[in-house]
Design a protein that fits this description.
The protein is α/β, with parallel strands linked by helices and about 675 residues long. Helices cover about 35% and strands about 25% of the residues.
Amino acid sequence: MPTSTPSTPVQLETVLPGDDEAIAQAFELGCQFKATLGPQMRGAYEAAAKDGHLLAARSGGKVVGFALYGVAYQRVRLAYLCVSEEFRRNGLAKRIVDHLSATHRDLAGISVKCRQSYGIDKIWISLGFHKRSEVKGRSHAGHLLTAWWRDHGHPDLFSRQDPPLLRAALDNNVIRDLGPSRSRQGASESLALVADHLTDQLELVVTTSVRREIADLEDGPIRAACEEVMSGCTSLAPDNEAVAAAQRLLLEKIDPEHGKYPDGRRDEWDLRHVASAVASKLGVFVTHDARLIGVLRQPARALGLRILEPADVVVHLDELTRAEAYRPVALLGTGYQHTALGSEQDQGVEHLASNATGEGRRDFLRRVHSLAIAADTQRSAVMDPKGEIIALYATSQQGFTLTVSLLRVANHPLRDTVARQLLLILRNQARAQNLGAIVVDDPHLAPAVQLAMLEDGFQQLQDRWTAFVIDTCGTAADVERDVIAVARHLDLPEPPPLRSTMPAAAVAQHERKWWPAKIIDTALPTYVVSIQQRWSNQLFGVPEPLWREALGLSREHVYYRAATGGPAAPARILWYMSGNKPAAPGIIACSQLELVVEGAPEELHNRFQHLGVWELSQIQGAGDGRHRQALRVTNTEIFPHPIRLPRLKILSGSRTNLLYPLSPRKIEPELFAQLYREGFGRHE
């Protein structure tokens, strides 16, 4: 179809959260092409803008094209790529995709799914994508989809394996929306759950309880349509005793202000459905039943289940997927132990053998035993509260590297969380021993461990996985020098040159994959944020450990504060612990700031409860007004030498606003470097 060449220049820019006009124009443009893009929800565009994931092409102040995407598991997930009719065939789509690649060059690549029936394979190829696989979509028509991948040239697993799915149980009303009530006003939010591009990201689950309720319907077209929907979902049949136990716990936690509950057959079904999802160890239950949400959302949260409306699942899918895989709060105070493995415990690890890779249990036990008698090899294990070993690893120092010859995590509900915790433990061990790299050469790694390593910045070369541990706080040139030294020592390709002009997002990514590296002469800002001692105790174990013998501090936390000003992500945070008792005030830790979100306390608690130790009532009391601010931070480093107030006065000089930072304060790179080095006892 011929198109005119636009005379007005087109500019690409990331839409900011407050740019309502650009968000509205992008949404309206998407609605024009919903026949190919799928169901459109304004909330998805607003959420993408909040996260900086809505890229707009503007001409004469009007949005004429856009990309809406998410970032998770070291990849860009492209949900929508849309260009208006009059701007097609002039290279705009290529410009948009190239811009995404340039902005997120540090990620593995860009993935997208598209119906084969659209017949646009040549377009995706021209945009630099290649076919990876084919899959059947979950929409009513069951279209065949092609998975496309644009690679950024990093070693990765993605050509062989997709990241974990979010598993979500469906309520009766959502199943009706997907079947007999598809034309109902408001059903579009539920229909978005079966959009083609979500096929490999969202696994829809139906429990026995919901199937029984559907079976109670009168035999006819409505029941038949519901059963057809359920035939395309995963079926789970949790143990009846586990369901009954979950029901009792839910009833114990219901707020008395809701009155009698359950009150009628409808409530009894709802209670059973939610209890079944809890017993099935699912992270999400999807419904738009207002009474169910009002009564059971809070009790279900306490049992690890989120009750969400369909729109919330679609809008925050990447974050929910990560939340289900990584639930550090589940480890807090629960008796998980990290300990050395004694020789008498060898028989308790045979379940960690990798049958999937052809490793026999005898061969595995023989290897475990040989490591027990190997010189300078340390075997460590993680035990659950019952004393069963759920993870095992063996380390030794070989020259400049920490060699991990065994790294196993059992098929356990918290396997993803434990895998990520272990990688941080390994990084800290390498750092403590002044080693520049970690090399994992276990040929039988579980997929959960491999995915955790990808997120953590490991590279796979043949059968070895390598991560750099760069304990340098300096300029881009300083960090580049030390990275090159490690790469040459390991005979690995040298990284591309670092520049002080790199954008903040690129700097943050480098600091994550080379942790604990700090590149100070760049655009990545540092803020001093005040935290009360009761919260620093619960989040970071300072001034006193919250739990001494458990697995260790989690990698991610969320901190809530008043929604007045505040830092912007990505950034670094130096934590200023306020108060005088039981410890003196001062700067106690450094974190990487990954996300800043403002919203109502209920919304934030529901979104981040898997990371935090705060109750809803505590978030509500964290400031004045209706909204709060959530800071999601990761890789917190506790200073072995806290910078107490008298010393901080000397170091800060004339910067008196740092002494009592009631609100976040941005500081200069030179001061950050001085404070960070002093926190680790490196006085200049």
